[in-house]
């Protein structure tokens, strides 16, 4: 696959009379690692929801992995999201009373794969994030940093090319936060496109690219866009994904 994995052109979002995102242009190449940073109310969460296909823009054009999101039905959009995007949130969202291996395996619950296959995939994902020795531990037996690594293992279970991390260190102490950021960098080095949504300017400054939002606008982008690319959508991009996979 060639071309950017995320392309926003003139994307706006309004909630009633309130503009949350204003004519945003953003192009993210495959294999990039970047931070989207800004204070509360800057539009970070709105941009995350739109790029993650959890919400649709009011106007403008969005392409994810070459697909025109506006042209997709709900089923097609769910399939695109399931195979393309992994999410890591500030709140870990781990089930209580369930071993880590099954928490991760449940990420494939609707894939049609047998339980043994799902658990094998979960074991590989947990080893990938350094938790091979904690697979049978319950949520309350894991530290905050370990819980976030379980959440990351669940997010990368199907090897999505795009990983979106929303304030991934927000509930962690500095030591655990450092470990989680190192893990995200390792995933990036392995070829995953990693987008970190954060209000932490230090984290943003430590990443290869920083996109700053203010009042719903892209105020600054440390990556100079290539002439003619941001704000323009190629007419050759695909419109409908040839997928039947259900969202997991």
TrEMBL record:
Keyword hit for Transport: yes
Family annotation (SUPFAM superfamilies): P-loop containing nucleoside triphosphate hydrolases
Region (Disordered): 219-248
One cellular component (GO) term of this entry: plasma membrane
GO molecular function: ATP binding; ATP hydrolysis activity; transmembrane transporter activity
Keyword Hydrolase: no
Coiled coil: none
Protein name (Swiss-Prot/TrEMBL): Putative ABC transport system ATP-binding protein
Species classification: Bacteria, Bacillati, Actinomycetota, Actinomycetes, Streptosporangiales
């Amino acid at each position: 696959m060639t071309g950017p994995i995320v392309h926003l052109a003139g994307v706006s979002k309004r909630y009633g009379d309130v503009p949350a995102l204003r004519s945003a242009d953003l192009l993210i190449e495959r294999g990039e690692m970047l931070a989207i940073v800004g204070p509360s109310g800057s539009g970070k969460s709105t941009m995350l929801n739109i790029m993650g296909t959890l919400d649709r823009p009011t106007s403008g054009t969005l392409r994810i992995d070459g697909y025109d999101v506006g042209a997709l039905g709900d089923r097609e959009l769910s399939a695109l999201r399931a195979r393309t995007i992994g999410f890591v949130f500030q709140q870990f969202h781990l089930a209580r009373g369930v071993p880590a291996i099954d928490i991760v395996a449940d990420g494939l619950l609707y894939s049609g794969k047998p339980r043994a296959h799902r658990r094998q995939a979960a074991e590989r994902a947990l080893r990938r994030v350094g938790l091979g020795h904690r697979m049978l531990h319950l949520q309350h037996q894991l530290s905050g940093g370990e819980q976030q690594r379980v959440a990351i293992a669940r997010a990368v279970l199907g090897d999505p090319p795009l990983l979106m991390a929303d304030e991934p260190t927000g509930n962690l102490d500095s030591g655990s936060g450092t470990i989680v950021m190192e893990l995200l960098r390792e995933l990036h080095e392995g070829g995953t496109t990693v987008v970190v949504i954060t209000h932490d300017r230090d984290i943003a400054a430590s990443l290869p690219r920083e996109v700053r939002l203010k009042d719903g606008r892209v105020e600054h982008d440390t990556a100079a866009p290539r002439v003619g690319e941001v704000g323009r959508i190629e007419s050759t991009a695909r419109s409908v994904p040839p997928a039947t996979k259900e969202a997991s």
